[in-house]
Amino acid sequence: MWDDAGRVQPILRYNRAEIEKVGEFDFAKTRELIGGMKKHYRHHYVVSQRFRKAILDGKYRWIDFVPVEIA
Fold first, then answer.
1. What is the DSSP letter of 10?
2. 2 in a domain, yes or no?
3. CB–CB of 71/16 below 8 Å?
4. How far apart are the C-alpha atoms of 18 and 40, rounded to whole Å?
5. Which is more confident, 7 or 66?
6. Number of other residues whose CB lies within 10 A of the CB of residue 32
7. pLDDT tens, residue by residue, 15-61
């Protein structure tokens, strides 16, 4: 998966039912296991399309976004 800046990023996958339990949100901080060891946990920020558009329409064009997969 490529991000907005052209870098390769891990694909973050979320279960639709789990996301729907949370309700509508614009910004969420997650803790994801990347790799196979406990020390490879990374924090990610998941944002809504509305939040992403507001950022890109504003002066914060230096922020990169990576799509997530919701199944």
1. P
2. no
3. yes
4. 23
5. 66
6. 14
7. 999 889 989 999 988 887 776 666 777 788 889 999 999 988 988 87
Pairing of strands 41-47, 27-33: antiparallel
Can you give the residue range of the structural domain that contains 63?
13-70
The pLDDT value recorded for residue 3 is: 62
As for how many domains the chain has, the answer is 1
Q: How is residue 26 written in tokens? A: 């614009």
pLDDT tops 70 at residue 2: no
Could you tell me the two tokens for 1? 């998966």
CB 4 within 8 A of CB 65: yes
Joined together, the tokens standing for residue 54 give 């507001």
- For residue 8, the one-letter residue type is V
How many Å apart are CA 9 and CA 69, to the nearest integer?
Answer: 13
